[in-house]
Amino acid sequence: MKKLVILRVLSQSLFSLLFIYILWSTTYPLKGIISPEAIFKFDPLIMIITSISERVIIGGLIFSLAMLALTLVLGRFFCGWVCPLGAAIDLAGAVRKEARSSDAFNRRLAMPKFFILGAIVAAALLAFQFAWIFDPLVIGARFVSLNMIPTGTFLLDRALMLLIRASGFNATLYDVYRSLKVSLLGVNVHYFSHAFAILAFFVALVCSALTLRRFWCRALCPLGAVYALTARRALLRRRTTVCVKCTICKSRCRMGAIHDGNSGYSPGECVLCMDCLYDCPPKSTKFTFAYPGRSRATCPAAAPDAAQKISRKNFLLLLSASVPFLYGFSVKERSRARILGGGIIRPPAALSEEKFLDRCIRCGNCMKVCITNGLQPALLQSGLAALWTPHMVNEIGYCEYQCTLCGNVCPTGAIPPISRERKMKTRLGLAQIDRSLCIPWAESKECLVCQEHCPVSDKAIKLIRDTVGGKTPAKPVIDASLCVGCGICQNKCPVRPARAIRVYPIVEDRS
Questions:
Q1: How many CA atoms lie within 13 A of 469 on its CB side?
Q2: Phi and psi (nearest 5°) for 510?
Q3: DSSP strand E in 404-508: where?
Q4: ω into residue 29 within 30 of 0, thus cis?
Q5: Residue closest to 61 by CA, chosen among 412, 368, 347
Q6: Across residues 105-126, what is the average pLDDT?
Q7: 50, 124, 437, 463: which has the highest count of C-beta atoms within 10 A?
C-alpha cells in the first residue's frame, strides 16, 4: 500500500474540508470553532507583504513565520499536504500521469513565480499591495465564500424541498430539513455581483493542470515561491541509494523537481507528494533528515533549482523594470481611487481609501458574513486598484445598525473591529433626498417608509408638514447631525427604478 500517498491525500482532504467549514460557518451569529481570519494568519505572503506595504506589524504575523520555520525542517510540505487550492489542482490534474520534460524546461517553467514574487515585493516597498491577486488561500477563500457556499446552499435547499414535496411532506424528511436549516443550510443564500468573473478565474487556474500538472504551483504561485526559497535548505531530503536509470520518477513528478540521471532534485520544487517512493522499481528512494555534517554520499547534493538560477543581473533587471511601472500604476490608480472612492461606501470603520486598498486582500470574508448582503465586490467603480474590494450596495442590502461582523472577520485590519456602541455612531455616509422623486415632496402623498425604518433612536429623518394644494403630507428631511448613512432608508424606499433617497459616502470620516 502507498501509505504515505494515502496519508497525503487524507491530509489534503482534511485541510480542504476544514477550510470550507471555517468559511461556511462564518455567518450570523459567528458559531465556528475557528475564526475565518485565522486562515490567513498562517499565510506568509499575505502577512509579510501587507506588513511591508503598510509599514505595520499585523497581528498574527508570528504564525506565518512559524510556517516558514516548519518549512526549513520539512520542506515545501504546505503546497503538497495542506493547501486547499493545491488539492483542487491535484484533483483536476489526476488525469495526466506522465510529464516528460528536460531539466532546462523545468527550470524555465519554475522561474516566473520568483519574478512575480519579486514584483510583489517591489510594489510593497512602494506601499502598494497586490499579493491578493496571486495568493492561493485568498483565491480559494474568495471562490468558496462567493461561489461555492451560495450555490451549494441554494441547490441543496431546493433539492430537499422538492424531495419533501414529492414524498407528501414526509415527517422524517421534514425534521431532517429543519435540523439542517439551523446548521448546514443556516447560511444566508446571498447574491454577489461579478461572482461569475471570480468563478471563471478560479476554474481557469485549476483547469490549467489539464495542460500540465501543477502548472499554477510550478510556474506562477508566489506563495509557492516563498516556500521554495525557504525549502532549499530544508532538513528533510530525498535520497536514492540505487538508481537503475529508468526515469520513471522523473517522468511522473508533478512538480518537475527530479533531475535527469542521478543528479539529484530541486528541494524547493518538491512538494513531498511521495509518489516517487512507490514509483521507484528497486524501492531505493527515501526521505530522511539531512542533519548538518551528514555526508554527501548518504544524502546527495541537489542540482541548482530555478531559484538558484535567477542571476543577480536578472533580479536587478526585474526591479529596475518593475519599479517605474509599479510606481506609475500606484500613483495613477491611487489618485483615481481617491476621486472615485468618494462614490462608493466602504464597510463601517474602514481605513482611509489608500490604506484600505493596501490592507484589503479581497478574501470575501466580510461580504459573506454581511447579514443583509449589502457588501458586494467592487468592479471598476473605484478604479482597477479597488477590484473586488467590498463596498455597500444599498439597493441590495443595508448596513445593520448594530452589526460588527465584518470587522470581526477581517484578517488584515482593513476593516478594524469595533464595539457595538461605536458602530452605532460610525458614519458611513449621509442620506440625501431627491425631492423630484420623493412621493410626499413630488406628489403631496403620504409616505413614511424611510422615517419608520430609520434605526437611530432620535430619528435622523425628521418629518415636517407643509400644506400644498389643500394637502398636508408629512415630508421627510435629513438631520445631518444624526444620520450615520446605514442605507436602510435607501434600501426600503418604494420609489423605482431610482430611489428617492440615496446615501453618499463621507470619505473624510475614515482614518
A1: 7
A2: -95, 135
A3: 429-433, 461-465, 474-478, 501-505
A4: yes
A5: 412
A6: 92
A7: 50
pLDDT at residue 341 tops 70: no
Q: Cell for 272?
A: 513531498
Residue 238's beta-bridge partner residues? 287
Residue closest to 290 by CA, chosen among 235, 230, 231? 235
Q: Which residue, 59, 31, 62, 57, is CA-closest to 44?
A: 62
**CA-closest candidate to residue 427, choices 365, 478, 493:** 478
Grid coordinates representing 387? 477590484
The Cα–Cα gap between 495 and 486 comes to 18
How does residue 331 score in pLDDT terms, banded at 50, 70 and 90? very low
For the entire predicted model, the pTM comes to: 0.82
**Nearest in space to 190 (alpha carbons), one of 427, 408, 429, 390:** 390
Q: What's the pLDDT tens digit per position in 400-457?
A: 999 999 998 898 999 999 999 999 999 999 999 999 999 999 998 999 999 999 999 9
Rounded-to-integer distance, Cα 48 and Cα 227, Å: 13
Strand partners, 69: none
* Alpha carbons 163 and 270: distance in angstroms, whole number: 48
Q: Lowest mean pLDDT: which of 309-318, 356-365, 378-387? A: 309-318
Looking at residue 319, its amino acid is L
* Residue type, position 413, single letter: G
340 has a pLDDT exceeding 50: no
| Lowest mean pLDDT, pick from 112-126, 180-194, 248-262 | 180-194
430-501: CATH topology = Alpha-Beta Plaits (3.30.70)
- Name residue 429's beta-bridge partners: 505
Where do the CATH 3.30.70 domains begin and end in the chain?
A: 430-501
